[in-house]
Design a protein that fits this description.
It holds the Pfam family 7tm_3. The structure is a single chain. The chain is mainly alpha-helical. Helices cover 63% and strands 10% of the residues. The chain is built from four helices and two strands. The protein has helices at 2-5, 10-41, 54-84, 109-114, and strands at residues 90-95, 100-105. The longest helix is centred in the first third of the chain and has 32 residues, at 10-41. The protein starts with a helix and ends with a helix.
């Protein structure tokens, strides 16, 4: 939401997917790892107790974050290729009821997949 607060620009069109994807993986990755910890602690098949260390959970979260980072780096390279081919990432849109015109980032097809 903070990225969308500012006036639309090419930089904002690059930062918005990064903020969305990295925020998603950090937030929901932490929730999934907490659930994983509870499921491991209350495992009843073995007689001994399993303990998941915080450092292990942080390692798992780091792996998830780095994989999303690599994915977003490929996505950014894809968008930079669009810029080299003079594809404009900004589009002028209009609210029909008021006739108000504004700039917004053009939604790419891959944006719909990641959302």
């Amino acid at each position: 939401i903070l990225v969308k607060f500012f006036e639309p620009s090419i930089l904002q069109c690059f930062l918005e997917p990064w903020a969305r994807e990295m925020g998603f993986i950090i937030c929901y990755g932490a929730i999934i790892l907490k659930l994983y910890r509870h499921l491991i602690e209350f495992r009843t098949r073995k007689a001994h107790r399993w303990v998941v260390k915080d450092t292990d959970l942080l390692k798992y979260l780091l792996i998830m974050t780095l994989s999303v980072f690599a994915y977003m780096a490929a996505f950014t390279a894809f968008m930079l290729n669009f810029r080299r081919e003079n594809y404009d990432l900004l589009s002028e849109q209009m609210i029909y009821s008021t006739g108000l015109r504004f700039l917004a980032c053009k939604p790419l097809l891959w944006d719909f997949v990641t959302e």
